[in-house]
Design a protein that fits this description.
The complex is a heterotrimer.
Chain A lengths: L1 E12 L6 E12 L3 E6 L5 H9 L5 E7 L2 E2 L8 H4 E4 L13 H11 L5 H11 L16 H13 L5 E5 L7 H18 L2 E6 L2 H7 L2 E6 L2 E7 H5 L6 H9 L12
Parallel strand pairs in A: 3-8, 3-9, 6-7, 7-8
Antiparallel strand pairs in A: 1-2, 1-4, 4-5, 9-10
Helix pairs in contact in A: 3-4
Chain B lengths: L4 E12 L2 E13 L3 E5 L6 H8 L8 E3 L2 E4 L2 E2 L5 H7 L4 E4 L3 H4 L6 H13 L3 H14 L5 H6 L7 H13 L5 E5 L7 H18 L2 E6 L2 H7 L2 E6 L2 E7 L9 H8 L18 H5 L8
Parallel strand pairs in B: 3-9, 3-10, 7-8, 8-9
Antiparallel strand pairs in B: 1-2, 1-4, 1-5, 5-6, 10-11
Helix pairs in contact in B: 4-5, 4-7, 5-7, 7-8
Chain C lengths: L12 H8 L6 H17 L2 H18 L1 H4 L32 H37 L1 H16 L2 H12 L3 H27 L3 H7 L5 H37 L11 H8 L8 H28 L8
Helix pairs in contact in C: 2-12, 3-5, 3-12, 5-6, 5-8, 5-10, 6-8, 7-8, 8-10, 10-11, 10-12, 11-12
Classes of the chains: A alpha/beta, B alpha/beta, C mainly alpha.
């Protein structure tokens, strides 16, 4: 049974002449417990799909379902207990005036949990931060630490689906490795389903079982990771991405 | 042939409430007519090094060095006016995001012309022609239209190419590129890098390429310096980066996910405090 | 990286280190550390400290007026009227009814503080409410609230005060009301502008994804971020408020005689300015000093409260 099912999703911003179609006719199916990637360059619409799933986008058409929730224009309260998101920029996803304790405490109390103190301690342990981080403010945390707090916040309501919007793009390479390992461990421990957006093919190949490739709002190909690693794509754009990911190779200079 | 840059024991210090903070701690290296990559994570001091060379660090930050010579001339002893003529004329810098380095309220033509006229005193007409020439050199197909445009009308890749044109219009000897492609999409990256590659080669310039991307630096540069905590921990030929010996470099290489080499878990870097205390490795030629 | 390292006060290295720590151990510890860091930033700005000193002096004088004033401010002595400053018993001279100017200034500080406090409480809070609601909710609410703001912004302060006086009678409360009603619109605009920027950020999106409603978001997430710029703006506006109250007093629309309000004192002294300059000048200097104090402090507070922290890696 599909945990996440998106059918013919269209997302647009603006009306009439100013209308911009961010996502066109996207269809995705993610099985329960799987890890699925969304790869593309900026402007491809990949993050927009995530935002549409959680209800941060006002104008869309098509159908979306997560678990037993058929998604309409508003998200029911208990939807957020089941589906959570980790944002890309760790420097922008934490309120600058709220300490880690306040962030986690507020999340837990909004979802109706009672033993907040213990849960905060456990969450901080789960993401590899100790109790010393509990009362810090974001400006006292490094990028990797902030992202861990963001992950802890996402895990607080005990969701079954995590949407990850380029979770390690803003992080140093060594920190990225720690966070990716953490995400892999958490997925196994809590039996989570991941939908992960990234522009980095190697990261997606490492974390996901299959991935959709997006270009200009459309999904041009869905391929599984073996094909990706074997450099065996069908679509030329996928091939172009794979080649670019291999580092710099002197090629014909392309004019603007 | 002498080196373009010789730097010995460069130190950059910032005073803070908790005492002095050394962003760059006694590093030494030279730059010849080559492509030198400086690789490190955030906080390693790589960007500070680039800025220190151009003395772009504002007080109360301090730059000290035993030697910081451009073609034998001591950069640290230069007056403000002399430094102004070095910056942009002999050493130029391209930074990460053209959104923030291009003036949003000036037309592209005005920006390039301003730089050219400031350093060469040329007439407006001559400067205009030179600007057009540079835009063509960075493979912009419709330079007249771009000249009349404002930065916000340009895409990221275009903006970065315009930056490169602007920074190379005065034909400097050295280009310092600080994460020039990090804000760009992967396919545009290749384009911009090949432009930098061609121009640096054609003009016989020295290039300092600062980045966090090991693979990129390995494939693009000739020689690489790896920085950690303000010190250089290793230097090697770019082609041989994957045979590096220092545990930090090996750790960084090992922690990258690779398309061609699946691993169940990435080897997260274990930081050894001894790396911070060990003296800087010399990158002098 | 804006100031030089200070010397560690002898005997208190532990406390200072505790306050400067990067790893607070409890909510209170974190709060105190934040306050201490703010205090250090303020302290490193000499002009701001001058401003703070002036305002603390004002508070002190207002609090201990009974002890500090040499004479009853309302006691008249027609024989000793218009005495020069330095006359025994009257350090700053006397006014046209023989009342001691120094004592009147001292007691008048209370009125000044009263006006300033009331306006500082009413105007920014009203502006914050209107601005954040308009900015967050958007749409028709925003349009309507902003048009109301524009209407109040268009009112000239003195004309409104005159209208109030005509309707309700002269007095200091009505003056305060008139000033507040024309002072709140700029705060609404500031709050709205900040809200528009903030509401698109990821941390607001993140808390919406926890099911937070508009009220919680506005009060707990947006207000804390707006309050810094409002506080700075308030201190800078205080000078204008004092001058406005003085202006109203000057016109006879604010505090009524024999109340020693500084503006009213200037008005009374106006006719004697050529030969007996001190009657108008002394209260004028007092107003100038307090306004300056607020300006300097406001400038210093901007450095402390400006949320540059946490924005850069």
């Amino acid at each position: 049974m599909s945990q996440i099912s998106i059918n013919n999703l269209n997302v647009w911003f603006g009306e009439h002449e100013e209308r911009v179609d961010a996502v066109k006719g996207a269809s995705i199916n993610v099985e329960s417990g799987a890890s699925f990637g969304l790869v593309g360059e900026s402007g491809s619409g990949k993050s927009t799909i995530l935002r549409a799933l959680v209800g941060l986008v006002p104008t869309w058409s098509g159908s979306m379902a997560v678990g037993e929730f058929e998604l309409g224009s508003k998200r029911p309260r208990n939807f957020y207990k089941d589906v959570q998101m980790v944002f890309q920029d760790p420097y922008a996803s934490l309120h600058p005036r709220h300490s880690v304790d306040q962030v986690l405490g507020e999340t837990l109390s909004l979802h109706g949990f009672k033993d907040i103190d213990n849960r905060i301690k456990k969450l901080l342990d789960d993401v590899g931060l100790g109790p010393t981080f509990r009362f810090r403010y974001p400006h006292q945390l490094s990028g990797g630490q902030r992202q861990r707090v963001a992950i802890a916040r996402a895990l607080a309501p005990e969701p079954s689906v995590l949407l990850l919007d380029e979770p390690t793009s803003a992080l140093d390479v060594s920190v990225q490795a720690e966070v990716l390992n953490l995400l892999a461990d958490l997925r196994e421990e809590h039996k989570l389903t991941y939908l992960m957006v990234s522009h980095n093919l190697a990261v997606v190949a490492h974390m996901c079982d299959a991935t959709a490739v997006m270009q200009n709002g459309e999904i041009v190909e869905v391929l599984n990771v073996q094909d990706m690693r074997a450099m065996n794509p069908n679509h030329p754009y996928t091939r172009h991405l794979l080649e670019s990911a291999a580092g710099y190779n002197p090629t014909e200079i392309q004019s603007a | 042939m002498s080196n373009l840059l010789d730097i010995e024991n460069l130190r950059v210090t910032f005073p803070t409430r908790q005492g002095d903070f050394q962003a760059v701690r006694d590093i030494s290296f030279s730059l010849g007519q080559e492509r030198l990559g400086i690789v490190g994570e955030s906080g390693s001091g790589k960007s500070m090094t680039g800025r220190a060379i151009l003395r772009l660090i504002r007080p109360p930050g301090q730059i000290q060095a035993d030697r910081m010579n451009l073609n034998g001339k001591n950069l640290l002893e230069m007056s403000h006016k002399q430094m102004q003529s070095v910056r942009g004329q002999e050493i130029s810098m391209v930074m990460q995001d053209p959104k923030f380095s291009l003036n949003p309220v000036m037309r592209i033509s005005d920006q390039i012309i301003e730089i050219y006229r400031f350093h060469t005193g040329a007439s407006h007409k001559a400067a205009y022609a030179k600007a057009l020439e540079m835009l063509e050199a960075v493979s912009i197909r419709d330079p007249e239209r771009v000249m009349k445009s404002y930065p916000h009308e340009m895409s990221g890749g275009m903006g970065q190419r315009i930056m490169i044109a602007m920074m190379l219009v005065t034909e400097p000897q050295i280009l310092i590129a600080d994460e020039p492609t990090s804000a760009l999409d992967v396919s545009v990256q290749t384009q911009v890098l090949s432009i930098i590659d061609r121009l640096v080669r054609e003009r016989g310039m020295g290039l300092i390429f600062i980045s966090h991307d090991l693979n990129l630096v390995a494939s693009f540069c000739d020689r690489v310096l790896i920085m950690y905590a303000g010190r250089i921990v290793e230097t090697c030929d770019a082609k041989k980066l994957h045979e590096a010996t220092h545990p930090y470099t090996r750790g960084l290489l090992g922690s990258l996910p690779r398309l061609d080499d699946p691993q169940p878990r990435l080897d997260a870097l274990q930081r050894d405090p001894a790396w911070r205390d060990a003296p800087s490795v010399s990158g002098l030629l | 990286m804006t100031d030089m390292p200070s010397d560690i006060p002898a005997g208190k290295p532990g406390l200072r280190a505790w306050l400067l720590t990067d790893t607070p151990t409890s909510r209170n510890h974190a709060k105190m550390a934040a306050i201490y860091t703010g205090w250090l930033t303020l302290r490193s700005n000499p002009m701001a400290m001058v401003g703070l000193f002036i305002l603390i002096t004002l508070l002190f004088i207002a609090a201990f007026a009974e002890l500090l004033a040499p004479v009853d401010p309302l006691a008249q002595d027609l024989a000793g009227r218009l005495a020069r400053p330095g006359t025994p018993g009257h350090a700053l001279g006397t006014d046209s009814l023989g009342r001691d100017i120094l004592s009147r200034l001292i007691y008048g500080s209370r009125i000044t503080l009263y006006i300033v406090t009331l306006v500082a409480l009413i105007a920014p809070i009203a502006g914050l409410l209107v601005g954040t609601i308009a900015g967050y909710v958007g749409g028709w609410t925003d349009a309507v609230l902003m048009r109301i703001t524009d209407i109040f912004l268009a009112f000239p302060r003195l004309v409104l005060a005159l209208a109030f006086v005509a309707a309700l009678g002269a007095g200091i409360e009505n003056a305060v009301l008139a000033i507040s009603l024309t002072a709140w619109p700029p705060y609404a605009r500031i709050a709205r502008a900040e809200t528009l920027t903030i509401r698109n950020s990821d941390y607001i999106a993140a808390v919406k994804l926890q099911g937070a409603g508009a009220l919680r978001i506005i009060v707990k997430h947006i207000w804390p971020l707006c309050i810094s710029s409002l506080i700075v703006r308030v201190t800078l506006d205080m000078a204008g408020v004092i001058l406005a109250a003085a202006g109203l007093g000057f016109l006879g629309l604010g505090a009524q005689p024999p109340s020693p309000e500084w503006g009213a004192m200037i008005s009374e002294g106006r006719q004697f300015i050529l030969d007996h300059w001190w009657v108008a000048t002394m209260p004028g200097l007092a107003i100038f000093t307090v306004s300056l104090g607020f300006n300097l402090l406001g400038d210093g507070l901007r450095d402390v409260l400006d949320p540059k922290d946490g924005a850069s890696s």
